[in-house]
């Protein structure tokens, strides 16, 4: 026969077979590799004998738990035979024997269920303990490894990869080693035992039902594949939408200021709508899968009873008695259930494979040796910081993420000990990179960094960072008390005197102390209840706060040091945050103090006080300052000018000015214009300056230093209500809406989809009723197969009820598809609408609402995603299942009492018990979900901070999660430094503003924040700004300047007074159209996740889509166009979280460009040039001056050279305008202003 096959066909067959073998071999190898990887996972990372015992016990009892159910099938089958025997028998003796037999079997059922309960409980507990112990080991070891990794490695990871591995991969490992392992082992045991039992009881029927296995597996695999496919697509859209919502809620002031809420909501809705068809396909696939589940089950019943009736009839006719109805029932009972359950747990194999893969990814980090290990004990733990020079010798450096862009090009720099060295230069010149090398976040690519003759590479990294105090350009505070934030500096301090204090900093002691003080306990009394070392920590914190000039404003806060700073320090102004961060650096008494623009947000008086305090430390501390404000650097012992990654010149202020080089040019750019200092008339010196402005004010109000809240963290859009009342009522005091209101609102959401819901509910009624029909048919089937009914009746009954089971299979299949598709489509539409409405509503809530009851962006995001999804269940499959269950319950009770009321009475008490457990279990399981979601989101946000000397904590400590998480990510360096090293050339034309400037008046404005009643922030402010003027607000930090901006944007309404724009009181307006003419550059410049073009476009007027030419024009005016064009993707370059890949100065210029793109009539600048070098600042000033006349400009600035050309300068102190005039006028008559000018003067 084979000879007739052509050779070509045989050869093709052999080749095809060979290809299949080749494909099968790698698949087999991969499966074997995954199996061994999973076993290795179970016994990895310092496992103990207890782990081995738990795994062995879990495996044994999981196998045991698969045996009782098949045995129960045998018992149930014999019970049915006994009951049928009783029905056929007319003998009292036989009936008594059957009763005894039934009683014995009932006890067997009890014994088997108790044994099964114990086996399941033990194996689930064992595997749960195993997974928890493994996850704990992986979490601890991974965290320890991440802490010791070098910054270059962290930056080389994809965005969010560290968090993903720590959270998601560990969760995957925990899920893959949990009770699912026991369930799979138990299911396999159940499956094997069931088929053994089935082939013993009725091999013919068992052979027929073997087909169930491939049917269920095919249904599960194909359905699971498509559901996963559509779910991934949906998640991509939802994740993108969630990122937009998160950014919007985190940066709500910008959203409100630029009226960009509708644009962001539109973008949010576009992402959600993009997933609609995938959601419908997913719902349809799930409906078909569920329909097939019932179709296969009922069809199997039909086949089994039809075949069983024929076997029983043949047995009766031949009088063999080898097949009984009980045997048929046993086979159906065990095989249908076992085959279905095995198909349902088959996806667990993918879970185990995923766990093995996640374990490999985690272990690749865990076992990685870091070149710069911040936790290692190796290396020298002594360095002559106070005796020897720190030397950069021909240092070259490129960031690993951009190896082709040099940042430092052979820099040679000497930092003398116990002296103040200032590093100045243009933005992007490499100044912050010098700091990164000093902190040893990186090692030089070439060259050497030395202290004396000792290389930094030979120093113990932990000791090095513990010896350094570091204050960032944009300080990060955490959502806890000021006391805890400052005391963080003591953690891992290299100072021997602080070693015994670290445990109290790392545990919850300080948090408990702050909470006690906030609850009304006096500070001294609260401290007495703790260890004496806690009192020492508090004293050190107070001393550091006094040195940083922070103690004065801290003592005015409601709870002093125990006052919570809010999320990211939102309850403090920018200057106050910088002072707290400076105190955090000073508290450890560092040997090397690094200040990266640490006083940029401070007024000149505060800066002068801090500089005086720092000067006292110079005899024992080596200090390095990075500054754009040259007045900060002029008193340094040594000034180093760095540009294009090289030292351009160095020397003292006087020496460098005399040289007439780069530094002298910077001085020329920044210097306040020379003015004659006339003799000050006595009347100007002695008079009450406040009366010259707006009449006599309450003296006590002028003296009170109210605390200002940073405008950049002010959330919310106000509600359309009358001034005052809406912002003074705390949201927590408002009564919750009645339940009927909630139901009414829910019905309004559901109403557009009533057609789909009615269709789905109708199908659910059919599904619920089918369970009762199944019970009735099953009962009649068992009765019809009784041996005493005769062979013909048995065959007839099998055919009839088999047909009815098949009809039920078709009905169930159709009803499930209709129900699933109808509910799925309705749920998707309602879910999308609910999420869009939720975001829109959140963007329109009052600031008071956002600032109370712990409403952080993370918690609100969980409301949009989780709560909206939960609400959609009222129109999804959940309500269908509830209706089907209700129909089944009610109809089942009625039918039970009709057919067998005595048995029904006996079983009725079980109903409330089962219902109670069904309700209680999910409530207990899901209660903490929202709080956990909010906490997780907050922790992930806090991860995006710096790995500085202040934050290098002990990974072995038992501190709070947020303390530990601080270590995970180091600050992304200023990736754009090299691109920005060459400033833009000339000042281009400025985008023409729309119309003319706006007249602004503040009339007797009083205000206090609702969260701090009784602490006035504005105390009768009166301002009159003419259209087209350039006006400035000057004064100390926390005096109320940013709050005035909040009044102009109507983020808040004043408690008393009026805010007029072109004669209209905006506090009495309902709409926010006035914001269309206003542009804001906030103090903390943030960017949304998206392209540069998208971020710029948010500044455009509502309804206007800016052209590429308009964006380029605005960017040229802000001196950022050349930097953008140097990027590979230009204006389409994606901005990361908060735009951290840009330097502070570059983010500031992008924010200015975004504001200019609006062509505003009123431009608000809140410290808009604090992070810019002198030349960039001068170009932007020239650009702004070109706007004067067409645009009203109001600027807040501590750099007086920024505002010296202003038409009017208002001096704000204690929430009042105490003086006003031009720069020269204020020098002549304001002692405060004149002192600030002298302090900031950088004349040689």
Low-confidence stretches: 673-734, 925-994
CATH H level, superfamily name of the largest domain:
ABC transporter type 1, transmembrane domain
**Strand adjacency order, main sheet:** 6-7-8-3-9-10
Radius of gyration, rounded? 38 Å
Number of strands: 22
* CATH topology call of the largest domain: ABC transporter transmembrane region fold
Q: What's the overall geometry?
A: elongated
**Helix proportion of residues, in percent?**
55-70%
Number of helices: 50
Largest sheet: 6 strands, mixed
Q: What is the CATH class name of the largest domain?
A: Mainly Alpha
Q: Count structural domains.
A: 4
Mean pLDDT: 76
How much of the residues is beta strand, in percent? 5-15%
CATH architecture heading of the largest domain: Up-down Bundle
Distance between the termini: 109 Å
- SS-based class: alpha/beta
GO biological process, one term: oligopeptide export from mitochondrion
Protein name: Leptomycin B resistance protein pmd1
InterPro entries: AAA+_ATPase, ABC1_TM_dom, ABC1_TM_sf, ABC_transporter-like_ATP-bd, ABC_transporter-like_CS, P-loop_NTPase, Type_1_exporter
Membrane topology: Multi-pass membrane protein
């Amino acid at each position: 026969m084979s000879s007739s096959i052509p050779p070509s066909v045989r050869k093709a067959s052999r080749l095809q077979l060979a290809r299949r073998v080749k494909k099968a071999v790698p698949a087999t190898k991969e499966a074997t590799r995954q199996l061994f990887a999973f076993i290795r996972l179970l016994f990895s990372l310092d496992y103990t004998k207890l782990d081995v015992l738990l795994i062995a016990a879990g495996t044994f009892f999981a196998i045991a738990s698969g045996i009782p159910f098949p045995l129960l099938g045998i018992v149930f089958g014999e019970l049915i035979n006994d009951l049928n025997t009783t029905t056929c028998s007319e003998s009292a003796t036989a009936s008594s024997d059957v009763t005894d037999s039934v009683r014995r079997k009932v006890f067997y059922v009890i014994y088997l269920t108790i044994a099964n309960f114990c086996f399941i409980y033990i194996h689930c507990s064992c595997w749960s303990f195993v997974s928890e112990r493994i996850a704990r080991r992986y979490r601890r070891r991974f965290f320890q490894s991440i802490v010791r990794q070098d910054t270059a490695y962290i930056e080389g990871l994809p965005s969010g990869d560290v968090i993903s591995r720590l959270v998601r991969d560990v969760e995957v490992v925990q899920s893959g080693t949990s009770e699912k392992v026991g369930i799979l082992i138990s299911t396999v045991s159940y499956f094997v035992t069931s088929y053994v039992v089935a082939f013993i009881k009725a091999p013919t029927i068992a052979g027929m039902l073997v087909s169930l296995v491939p049917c269920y597996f095919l249904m599960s695999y194909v359905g699971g594949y498509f559901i996963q496919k559509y779910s991934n697509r949906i998640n991509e859209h939802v994740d993108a939408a969630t990122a937009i919502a998160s950014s919007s809620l985190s940066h709500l002031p910008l959203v409100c200021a630029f009226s960009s809420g509708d644009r962001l909501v539109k973008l949010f809705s576009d992402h959600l709508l993009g997933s609609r068809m995938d959601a419908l396909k997913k719902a349809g696939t799930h409906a078909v899968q569920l329909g097939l589940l019932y179709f296969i089950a009922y069809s199997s019943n039909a086949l089994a009873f039809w075949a069983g009736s024929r076997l029983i009839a043949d047995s009766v006719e031949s009088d063999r008695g080898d097949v009984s109805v009980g045997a048929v029932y046993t086979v159906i009972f065990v095989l249908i259930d076992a085959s279905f359950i095995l198909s349902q747990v088959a996806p667990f194999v993918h879970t185990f494979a995923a766990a093995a893969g996640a374990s490999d990814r985690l272990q690749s980090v865990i076992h990685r040796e870091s070149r710069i290990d911040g936790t290692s004990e190796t290396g020298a733990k002594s360095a002559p910081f106070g005796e020897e020079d720190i030397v950069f010798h021909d240092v070259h450096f490129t960031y690993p993420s951009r190896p082709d862009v040099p940042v430092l090009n052979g820099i040679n720099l000497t930092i003398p000990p116990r002296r103040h060295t200032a590093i100045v230069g243009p933005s992007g010149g490499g100044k912050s990179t010098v700091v990164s090398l000093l902190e040893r976040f990186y090692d030089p690519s070439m060259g050497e960094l030395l202290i004396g003759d000792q290389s930094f590479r030979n120093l113990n990294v932990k000791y090095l960072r513990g010896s350094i105090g570091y204050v960032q350009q944009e300080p990060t505070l955490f959502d806890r008390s000021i006391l805890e934030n400052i005391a963080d500096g003591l953690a891992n301090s290299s100072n021997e005197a602080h070693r015994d204090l670290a445990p109290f900093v790392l545990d919850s002691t300080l948090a408990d102390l702050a909470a006690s003080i906030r609850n009304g306990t006096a500070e001294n009394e609260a401290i007495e209840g703790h260890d004496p070392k806690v009192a020492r920590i508090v004293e050190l914190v107070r001393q550091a706060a006094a040195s940083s000039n922070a103690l004065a404003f801290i003592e005015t806060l409601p709870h002093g040091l125990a006052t919570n700073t809010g999320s990211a320090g939102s309850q403090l102004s920018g200057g106050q945050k910088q002072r707290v961060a400076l105190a955090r650096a000073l508290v450890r008494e560092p040997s090397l103090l690094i200040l990266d623009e640490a006083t940029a947000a401070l007024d000149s008086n505060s800066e002068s006080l801090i500089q005086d305090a720092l000067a006292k430390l110079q005899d024992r501390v080596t200090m390095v300052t990075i500054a754009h404000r040259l007045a900060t650097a002029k008193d340094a012992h040594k000034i180093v000018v760095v540009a294009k990654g090289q030292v351009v010149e160095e020397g003292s202020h006087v020496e460098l000015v005399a040289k007439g080089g780069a530094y002298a040019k910077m001085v020329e750019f920044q210097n306040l214009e020379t003015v004659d200092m006339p003799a000050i008339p006595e009347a100007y010196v002695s008079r009450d300056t406040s009366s010259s402005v707006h009449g006599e004010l309450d003296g006590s109000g002028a003296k009170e230093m109210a605390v200002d809240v940073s405008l950049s963290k002010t959330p919310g859009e106000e509600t359309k209500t009358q001034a005052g009342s809406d912002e003074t009522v705390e949201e927590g005091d408002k009564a919750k809406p009645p339940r009927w209101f909630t139901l009414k609102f829910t019905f309004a959401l559901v109403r557009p989809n009533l057609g789909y819901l009615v269709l789905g509910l109708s199908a659910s009624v059919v599904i619920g009723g089918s369970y009762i029909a199944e019970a009735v048919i099953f009962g009649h089937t068992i009765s019809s197969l009784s041996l005493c009914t005769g062979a013909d009746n048995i065959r007839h009954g099998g055919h009839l009820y088999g047909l009815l089971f098949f009809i039920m299979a078709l009905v169930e299949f159709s009803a499930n598809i209709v129900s699933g598709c109808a509910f799925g489509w309705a749920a998707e539409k309602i879910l999308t609408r609910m999420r869009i409405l939720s975001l829109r509503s959140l963007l329109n809530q009052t600031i008071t609402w956002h600032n109370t009851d712990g409403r952080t962006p993370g918690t609100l995001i969980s409301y949009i995603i989780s709560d909206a999804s939960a609400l959609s269940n009222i129109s999804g499959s959940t309500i269908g299942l509830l209706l089907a269950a209700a129909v089944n319950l009610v109809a089942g009770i009625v039918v039970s009492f009709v057919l067998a009321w005595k048995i029904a009475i006996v079983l009725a008490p079980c109903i409330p018990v089962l219902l109670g457990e069904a309700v209680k279990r999910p409530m207990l399981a899901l209660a903490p979900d929202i709080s956990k979601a909010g906490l997780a989101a907050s922790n992930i946000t806090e991860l995006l901070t710096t790995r500085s000397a202040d934050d290098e904590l002990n990974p072995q400590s038992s501190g709070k999660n947020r303390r530990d998480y601080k270590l995970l990510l180091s600050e992304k360096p200023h990736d754009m430094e090299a691109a920005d090293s060459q400033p833009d050339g000339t000042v281009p034309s400025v985008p023409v503003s729309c119309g003319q400037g706006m007249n602004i008046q503040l009339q007797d404005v009083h205000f206090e924040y609702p969260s701090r009643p009784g602490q006035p922030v504005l105390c009768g402010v009166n301002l009159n700004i003419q259209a087209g003027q350039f006006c400035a607000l000057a004064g100390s930090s926390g005096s109320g300047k940013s709050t005035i901006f909040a009044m102009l944007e109507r983020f808040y309404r004043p408690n008393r007074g009026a805010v007029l724009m072109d004669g209209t009181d905006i506090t009495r307006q309902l709409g926010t159209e006035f914001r269309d003419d206003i542009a804001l550059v906030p103090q903390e410049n943030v960017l949304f996740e998206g392209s540069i073009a998208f971020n710029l476009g948010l500044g455009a007027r509502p309804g206007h889509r800016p052209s590429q030419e308009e964006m380029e024009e605005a960017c040229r005016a802000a001196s950022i166009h050349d930097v953008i064009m140097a990027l590979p993707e230009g204006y389409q370059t994606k901005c990361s979280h908060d735009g951290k890949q840009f330097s502070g100065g570059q983010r500031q210029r992008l924010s200015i460009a975004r504001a200019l793109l609006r062509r505003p009539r009123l431009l608000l600048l809140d410290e808009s040039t604090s992070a810019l070098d002198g030349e960039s600042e001068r170009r932007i000033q020239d650009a702004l001056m070109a706007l004067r006349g067409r645009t009203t400009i109001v600027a807040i600035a501590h750099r007086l050279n920024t505002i010296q050309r202003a038409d009017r300068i208002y001096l704000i102190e204690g929430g009042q305008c105490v003086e006003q005039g031009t720069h020269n006028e204020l020098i002549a008559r304001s002692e405060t202003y004149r002192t600030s000018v002298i302090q900031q003067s950088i004349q040689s």
